[in-house]
């Protein structure tokens, strides 16, 4: 990597982080103010890494949710803060921004929006073209280790580059800084921001799957249920949605949403807790008991293994029959009261013990970050350090799965860019 050239006298914005929020801030600031010099610092050797893998490599760019009160309810943390921000740049603005650059998004049945190509590379290439068009400079493998006050209100940015080999590259000067380094998994990793006077809400994982080591249900790995309701025992945490059984336990949107809303509670439990799964979310236990008589009468002479009136996957139905000690060859009219009660219990309140979590690699998100009271939601500028801005997951804002975290990235990056460029 060549040595950093000397900084020209024109204003300089340094964006820390080469992810979605950082790139969006950089390219928009450079576009809005052509005289502004913009540099992105990325500590790894990859740009837009999460964009690349999101949505199974398709990039879940945003979510087709346009009602603001409903949209903000998709964020377990930061609802009041993000509501103000969405007034400046929301879902339709994201759709329009990409469309103006030749990238159209399509909406799937569940509301998730992807590029029409169904390839994350389409989003990446769009952002890289913008960076090239507006001469945004990118430095890879450059980790920021400190931010110091400089002369005349400027900042001095300390980086991990080799001071002996590249002395002029280890310290950059900037008039404005946008911190968009993503979620940091440990509080100690925020030290360089705490030294500026900022407070940190302790980070814990969000969007993770539930481990059930050794549980027989893992033999059904790969099986998905279109809709189930999952409740964390002893809490008010409950969600409904698609559920996927994996070789380590349970995943799918319902589990990921539950992990997001329960991020702090489940962390406090050290990821050892109980859940109840209702495989028939339209039924409560007593309602199913009341209707059971009609099912018995309707299917009286049929074998229960062949006649599943609830639309459950066959493998799951047979698994539940086995747990209830009911032979698949048993006719509906011959089921004993004890076995019937056991099956109804499993169908509406199936208990499981969760022991551990697995990070959902595609959408790894942390709960926690820069305390929101210290940031202006209308500008994303620090209330403590003038000229310092934040964007993306470094803030204590996180959404459930479905494109909501990317929407926050676009929104925060655009607002920070607009307010930097307007200066």
CATH superfamily of the largest domain: FAD/NAD(P)-binding domain
Uncertain stretches:
1-9
Number of strands: 20
Major sheet: arrangement of strands: 17-16-13-14-15-12-18
Radius of gyration: 26 Å
CATH topology of the largest domain: FAD/NAD(P)-binding domain
User: Architecture of the largest domain, according to CATH?
Assistant: 3-Layer(bba) Sandwich
What's the main sheet like?
7 strands, antiparallel
Separation, N- and C-terminal Cα atoms: 32 Å
Task: Report strand %.
Answer: 15-25%
Shape: elongated
Structural class assignment: alpha+beta
Number of helices, where a helix is a run of at least 4 consecutive DSSP H or I residues: 13
Mean pLDDT metric? 94
Number of domains: 2
Helix content: 25-40%
How would you characterize this protein structure?
The protein has 423 residues and is α+β, with helices and mostly antiparallel strands. Helices cover 31% and strands 23% of the residues. It is built from 13 helices and 20 strands. The strands form 5 sheets. The protein has a 7-stranded antiparallel beta sheet with strand order 17-16-13-14-15-12-18. Helix 2 runs antiparallel to helix 6. It is elongated.
């Amino acid at each position: 990597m060549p040595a950093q050239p000397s900084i020209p006298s024109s204003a300089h914005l340094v964006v820390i982080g080469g992810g979605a929020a950082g790139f969006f801030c950089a390219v928009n600031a450079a576009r809005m103010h052509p005289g502004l010099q913009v540099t992105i610092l990325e500590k790894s050797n990859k740009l837009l890494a999460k964009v690349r893998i999101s949505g199974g490599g398709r990039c879940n760019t945003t979510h087709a949710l346009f009602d603001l009160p409903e949209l903000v309810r998709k964020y377990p943390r930061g609802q009041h803060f993000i509501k103000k921000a969405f007034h400046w740049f929301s879902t339709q603005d994201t759709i329009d921004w990409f469309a103006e650059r030749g990238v159209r998004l399509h909406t799937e049945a569940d509301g998730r929006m992807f590029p029409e190509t169904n390839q994350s590379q389409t989003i990446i290439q769009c952002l890289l073209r913008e960076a090239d068009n507006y001469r945004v400079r990118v430095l890879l493998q450059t980790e920021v280790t400190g931010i110091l006050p400089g002369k005349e209100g400027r900042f001095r940015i300390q980086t991990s580059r080799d001071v002996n080999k590249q002395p002029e590259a280890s310290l950059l000067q900037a008039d404005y800084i946008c911190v968009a380094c993503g979620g940091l998994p440990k509080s100690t990793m925020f030290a360089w921001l705490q030294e500026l006077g900022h407070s940190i809400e302790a980070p814990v994982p969000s969007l993770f799957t539930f481990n059930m080591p050794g549980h027989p249900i893992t033999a059904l790995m790969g099986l998905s249920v279109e809709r189930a309701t999952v409740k964390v025992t002893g809490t008010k945490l409950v969600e409904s949605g698609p559920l996927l059984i994996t070789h380590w336990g349970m995943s799918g949107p319902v589990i990921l949403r539950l992990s997001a809303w329960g991020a702090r509670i489940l962390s406090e439990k050290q990821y050892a807790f109980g859940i109840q799964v209702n495989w028939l979310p339209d039924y409560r236990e007593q309602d199913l008991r009341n209707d059971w008589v009609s099912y018995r009468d309707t299917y009286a002479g049929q074998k229960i293994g062949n006649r599943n009136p609830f639309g459950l996957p066959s493998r799951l139905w047979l698994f539940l029959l086995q747990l209830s000690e009911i032979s698949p060859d048993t006719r509906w009219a011959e089921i004993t009261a004890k076995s019937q009660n056991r099956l109804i219990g499993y169908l509406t309140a199936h208990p499981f013990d969760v022991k551990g979590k697995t990070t959902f690699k595609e959408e790894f998100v942390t709960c926690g970050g820069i305390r929101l009271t210290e940031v202006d939601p209308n500008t994303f500028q620090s209330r403590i350090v003038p000229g310092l801005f934040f964007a993306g997951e470094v803030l204590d804002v996180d959404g459930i799965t479905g494109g909501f975290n990317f929407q926050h990235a676009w929104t925060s990056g655009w607002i920070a860019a607009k307010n930097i460029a307007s200066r």
